[in-house]
Every structure is written in structure tokens, then in C-alpha cells.
Amino acid sequence: MISTFNLRINFFLFKIRHYLLSYNHHKQITCNLINIKKISQKFSLNSKNTQERLVSKSYAAFILQSKSRPLLSLLILEFLSILLILPTVFYFFIKKSNSRKINCKSIKLVKYADVAFTIPKKLSKNSKTLILKNHELNLVDLSLIFNIFFFTLKMGYFFNFQFMLKCIKEISLYSPIIKSHKFKNLIVFLEFDCCISIITLLCKKNNKKIINIQHGDQVISAHYAFVEVDDFYFWNRNYYKMFQKMKVKCKPFFFNRFKKLKLKYNKKYVYILEPQLIHFGYNKKIFNNFIIELRKKLIILNKKYQVIFRCHPRYCNSQVVNFFKSKDITIENAKERSTSSMIRSSICIIGTWSALFVEASMSNKRVILLKCELTKVLKKYHFLFNQKNVKYVDIKKLKINEI
């Protein structure tokens, strides 16, 4: 049994890590296009030199993402990175793994065993899934790491030590797989990672093709800017247009991620997805007023439908969930029912924002988006607001006959 003292220590360490690595995601989205244009003018994003271009793109993405982090956390992590960078390199250099070599057409890389991202059928033939877990560096990797470090140092920007520490971590994960296994296509789900262009560089140096698969809803954000891969599979052309605005370079492909569902219902389930503070620009007052009004509406809806409040799988707020506990509202943990099962059994899905709304809409289900600070921004360009089975309303104007 874990002691109370150990639990407190773990929680304290989690809070420190969260502060040092936290991003203001609302700021990443609302200020992104302006920052993308400014940063694009400072980096060699179109250089004919492959290494210069791809390193520039990764570093530009890191700088752009850092703009939404607290300055103090950047300074602290920069100092810690200076202390950790040499021991980390030494440890990964002397560490050797004994993994069995794989010979196939495509390798799908994931970081967790329970990840089940969908890939196009034509890429799934003769493919293997590998979990990223072993870190290892060789002399060639060290040479690349030093080149990246001196290149970023030459550009005269701060915070390159924590950028380098991240590069070392990613190179040590991907390089052993890229170099030791025989395959043509490296399939990843990394468009949110500032180091994806560095991985592209590794692939080019080893005559591999890197293919990125869209795995969730994407918006115009610092998280997805300046990506370069060989091929990119999107859910539809609307997403590709968004990525073009974020200066992404790739050969676009499109695949049918979702199947149309018949509009027949055995039970009158209405799902409400847990609202998040980030959707309200981290304004607690506006957020609290929203959930109070939402609870009133759900109690009214329950007179005609079975209302299910679905918690977020990772960012669940226990205080919010407890507030919605009622004989009129069923609370459901996201792990209790799969996404596809939830969509199939629902009449309508309601909430502020989630990839589930895109999935539900593209599966022919009704969606009601509720106004918040985030949706006010996304409505300007996201295709979801123009779908026939999607309504966009103020919480105070939500009516039963709209379901």
C-alpha cells in the first residue's frame, strides 16, 4: 500500500511538472495566426538545405509554443535543462537495447500500449505496431545533436537548452527504430509535437518515408504549426486548409475515418460532454455561471430524454462532476463506454468543444455546440459550424425541441 506521505510527494512533483510544462492552450489558439506570421519571417523555413529547413521548423514550432508558457517556468526549465543535458546524453549513449529486428512495409509507432489510432486500410497491409520505450544514442546521433545545438545557438535565441533536451529525448526514441528495422514507411501521429520535423530529418537521412495520420480534431494552433512530413492523411480537405495556414508542408491524402450511422434510436439518450475551463479562457466566473445554467437545462431535458453527463477521460474536474450529480442526470466515466458505442446510442450530443463532436457529426448524428470563449474563435474558420446536423446556440436559449 502506498503511504500518505508518498502520495503527497507524488502529487507535489506532479504539480511542479504541470507548472513547468503547462501551456495556455486558449492563448495558443486565439493569438496563433499573428504569431505564425511573425515567427515565419525569422527562421529559414524554406531553405533548400534539408537539415537547416527541418531544424528551423522544429525550433520555430518550439518558440511558438513557448509563447503560451509562463516566463518563470521557461527560465526554471532552461536552468534545469542545462544541468540535465550532458547526463542524459551520456546515459542514452551507454544504454543498449536488445530488440528483435522487424522486416515489414510499414511500422506504426505509438507511445502507449492502449493507443488505438485508426490508419487507412492501404497502410495497414504488412504493417507492425511498435511501442516507443527504449532510448538509445550512437555517434551519428550525437553528431546530429551537436549540429542542431550549434545551429540554434547561432540563431541567437534563448531556451535552446530545453529544446535540445527534448530533441535528445525524441531522437533517442526514434533513431534506434529507424536505423535497426527494415521498413519503408514510418507511420506516426505527431503533428502536435514540435520535434516532428526533426524525426522527418532522421527519416530522410535513412531513406524512410514518414507518414502522419490525423488522429483527432485539429484547429489552428501553435501545437500544429510548421510541421513537415512526407505524407499526411487528413479526415477531409477542410483540415488540410487549416494546416496550410499553419505553414505545414506535406503531400496531402484523405481517408474516411467515420461511417455514416442510421438515424434510428432504441433509447432516448442525450449525451452532455463535460465542459472545460480552457474553453472559457480560464475565466472561472464565466465558467461557473455556465455550468450552473447548464445543470438547470439538463434537469429540464431529463423530462423527455435520458440525460448522460460524460466525464472527460483525462481532464476530469471532480468538483464539476459532483455538481452535476443528481437523480435526473446519469454520470458516465469515459472509460465505461467506447466513443463509437456512445455515438451509436445517442440521439444528440451537446457541449462546448471536443473531437467527439466532429466524429458524431461525420457519423450522421445531431450535435449542439454551446457558445463559449473558444467556440467564438473557432466559428470563424472551423467547418463543423457549417454542417447541417450541427446547431450553435447560447446555453440560455437551449430548448428541448431543438434536440
Can you tell me about this structure?
With 403 residues, this protein is α/β, with parallel strands linked by helices. It folds into two domains: 22-254, no CATH class; 269-402, 3-Layer(aba) Sandwich (Rossmann fold), CATH 3.40.50.2000. The chain contains 15 helices and twelve strands. The strands form two sheets. The chain has a six-stranded parallel β-sheet with strand order 2-1-3-4-5-6. The chain has a six-stranded parallel β-sheet with strand order 9-8-7-10-11-12, with helices on both faces. Strand 5 (228-234), helix 10 (237-245) and strand 6 (249-254) form a beta-alpha-beta unit. Helix 4 (50-66) runs antiparallel to helix 9. The longest helix is centred in the first third of the chain and has 24 residues, at 71-94. It is globular and about 70 Å long. It starts with a helix and ends in a 10-residue tail after the last strand. The mean pLDDT is 86.
